[in-house]
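Example record

The entry below shows one chain as it appears in the dataset: sequence first, then structure tokens.
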Amino acid sequence: QVQLVESGGGLVQPGGSLRLSCAASGSIASINHMAWYRQAPGKGRELVAAITTGGSTNYADSGKGRFTISRDNAKNTAYLQMNSLKPEDTAVYYCYARLTLLGSPYERQYWGQGTQVTVSS
């Protein structure tokens, strides 16, 4: 069984910063792709940022220049550094991983439980 555990969410004032972490655990052979998504009230889930094993990154336009995704492959952990936060960044942020399990050649997808980020004065 695989678990993705997010941490680092909370309440922050506009212009502030937060760093989210996502730690994957379980019988993992390799994590091929990790990403952060978010879902605001009344809206669909949207990609925030993604990163491959090799470190290639992709960002949604809303976060470019403000958000930075990174990962520590040895720790099976991804991070999302969010700076210059705006009220419209308020959402539940979800970690996503596409990985292979020990003893299996197939990729599987997993989601974390989500962490609330609220940007408000």
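Notes for this example: The mean pLDDT is 96. The first strand starts at residue 2 and ends at 7.
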